[in-house]
Amino acid sequence: EPEVTQTPSHQVTQMGQEVILRCVPISNHLYFYWYRQILGQKVEFLVSFYNNEISEKSEIFDDQFSVERPDGSNFTLKIRSTKLEDSAMYFCASSIGLAADTQYFGPGTRLTVL
Amino acid sequence: AQTVTQSQPEMSVQEAETVTLSCTYDTSESDYYLFWYKQPPSRQMILVIRQEAYKQQNATENRFSVNFQKAAKSFSLKISDSQLGDAAMYFCAYRLRGNMLTFGGGTRLMVKP
User: Fold this and answer.
1) Are A91 and B44 inside 8 Å of each other by CB?
2) Of A65, A66, A74, B10, which has the maximum CB count within 10 A?
3) Among chain B residues, CA nearest to A31
4) Chain B partners of A91 at a C-beta cutoff of 8 Å?
5) Contact A112/A13 with Cβ under 8 angstroms?
6) Does the pLDDT value for residue B41 go beyond 90?
7) How far is CA B111 from the centre of its chain?
8) How would you classify the pairing of strands B24-26 and B19-21?
């Protein structure tokens, strides 16, 4: 069964450094998402992406974040200058469509900012 | 803004028994979607069951069923004949017509052999 994959599984970085988290969505899916979960807190929506542009974003997704689909298979989340509070589990998800369509999640990347 | 609340941080159940996980949500909308996701340790979240708000009939998927009370804004998950593999974090989630899922805080389910 097709799965969403994410790399790396764990990323450790120094405060102020740029990180890129990578995701490979399910191949026939058209909508892509990033969520994050700070330890002990709820899973929070960051951004959704469709047709090579952001379709929705939360207030968390500020100017230090960006997303890109650099080729036909990868979907990336870039954090330009990491802060301590960016430490979290980041989940990528994809779906065929909107609303009732199931979002399939990847296993997550644990980002630790020191 | 929509909120989703799971009031039970942890639940435990004996193998083969039945357990119910609670979820309430707050919305002023009438057309939306509700989901239960399961997250085993160190594994990705997988969809357990979903419910369209316009449907009165409660969704069922094998041993998993929901009790959807629209007026009360309640969406509980019942797991029958619990198995050791059911042990996981369970997240309730809400989705309007757009993209984002709004999650509850999760309930950790432990299954005792």
Assistant:
1) yes
2) A65
3) B99
4) 44-45
5) yes
6) no
7) 17
8) unpaired
pLDDT above 70 for A99: no
Residue keyed to tokens 């069951």: B49
Does the pLDDT of residue A98 top 80, yes or no?
A: no
Three-state DSSP state, B74: strand
Instruction: Tell me what the pLDDT averaged over chain B comes to.
Output: 93
Tokens found for residue A69: 């689909």
A104 touches chain B (CB under 8 A): yes
- Dump pLDDT digits (tens) for A12-66: 999 999 999 999 999 989 999 999 999 888 899 999 999 999 999 999 999 999 9
Omega cis (within 30) before A8: yes
Contacts of A53 in chain B (CB under 8 A): none
- For residue A57, the surrounding DSSP H or E stretch is strand A53-57
